[in-house]
Design brief:
Elements: H1 7-17, H2 22-42, H3 48-63, H4 72-77, H5 84-97, H6 109-117, H7 121-134, H8 137-151, H9 158-174, H10 185-191, H11 197-213, H12 222-234, E1 243-244, E2 247-248, H13 250-272
Antiparallel strand pairs: 1-2
Helix pairs in contact: 1-2, 1-3, 2-3, 3-5, 5-7, 6-7, 6-8, 7-9, 8-9, 9-11, 11-13, 12-13
Length: 278
């Protein structure tokens, strides 16, 4: 949490830390919540700095374990701010305070989509992180196609594509019926040729989930998995930062083995008891 230049926020945090007991802390929190509520209710046109400061305070109070039952609209409105400091606060606080069933979340869908399809990579990452953290049917129905396009985009940087893969995985796990991944075997085969290990690891997590739900569509990807394993284990063709205690990217190795293991169980189960695969 950035405190630079926010004296009011720094003072509030210091007051909380200096409270001698829980009762004094609660009184200080109640006082601050009353002040924030009054400012949001009575003072129209708050400066971006003031709104950002009050929203940070709300998040800090929420992290202390207190209920925050107002100010959600102010947090969501910061997502549409044109500058990064306000937009960052809006995305972070919204992701923490609002769940997938909250009514205010629908108000942010258009802004989030504009950030995802826009050209600002920083805003794209903020939007993908929010969608991935919250999930929800509304996000899945409205944003999943744009996230899919971003994942397979040749112009997007690896950091953005990595977040897009994890975001799509979250949406698919929450609402597989509204995320259209039909005919994605060719797309997944292309993603398994990815050289960037961050994108490859994230894509493999998505691949494992897809295989678990529809194994028949992805048989052709098995040779690609074997080649990736060969690249990791035999050739050790990876950057040094992906080596953990001498093991080349153990997380990716586990992800690579899971689809093969699933296919093996299906084949064995089919031969032993055909009803297993029916």
């Amino acid at each position: 949490m950035a405190l630079s230049g926010m004296r009011g926020l720094s003072v509030f945090i210091s007051d909380i830390r200096n409270c001698q007991n829980k009762e004094l802390e609660r009184l200080r929190v109640d006082k601050e919540l009353g002040n924030i509520r009054t400012r949001f209710k009575n003072e129209k046109g708050l400066a971006p700095y003031e709104k950002k400061k009050y929203v940070w305070k709300m998040l800090y109070i929420f992290m202390l374990g207190y209920d925050v039952d107002f100010g959600h609209m102010e947090a969501v409105s910061l997502i549409s701010a044109p500058k990064y400091p306000e937009k960052q606060v809006g995305y972070i606080v919204t992701a923490c305070l609002i769940n997938e069933n909250h009514d205010f979340l629908r108000l942010a869908i258009n802004t989030v989509r504009n950030d995802i399809i826009g050209r600002n990579e920083t805003f794209q990452c903020l939007a993908l992180t929010l969608v991935g953290n919250i999930g929800g049917r509304d996000f899945s129905e409205s944003l999943a196609p744009d996230v899919q396009k971003l994942l397979i985009s040749s112009s997007a940087r690896p950091l953005v594509r990595k977040k897009a893969a994890l975001c799509l995985l979250r949406l698919y796990r929450k609402n597989p019926d509204v995320v259209n991944v039909d005919g994605w075997s060719d797309r997944m085969a292309q993603l398994l040729d990815e050289r960037d290990l961050g994108v490859l690891t994230s894509s493999m997590s998505l691949f494992v989930s897809l295989v678990s739900n529809n194994h028949e569509a992805y048989w052709s990807c098995i040779p690609k998995c074997v080649r990736v394993l060969e690249r990791l284990v035999r050739n050790q063709d990876i950057p040094q930062e992906y080596t953990y205690y001498g093991i080349p990217s153990p997380w990716l190795q586990v992800c690579e083995l899971l689809p093969s293991y699933i296919f093996l169980l299906i084949v064995v189960g089919h031969h032993i008891c055909p009803m297993v695969t029916q």
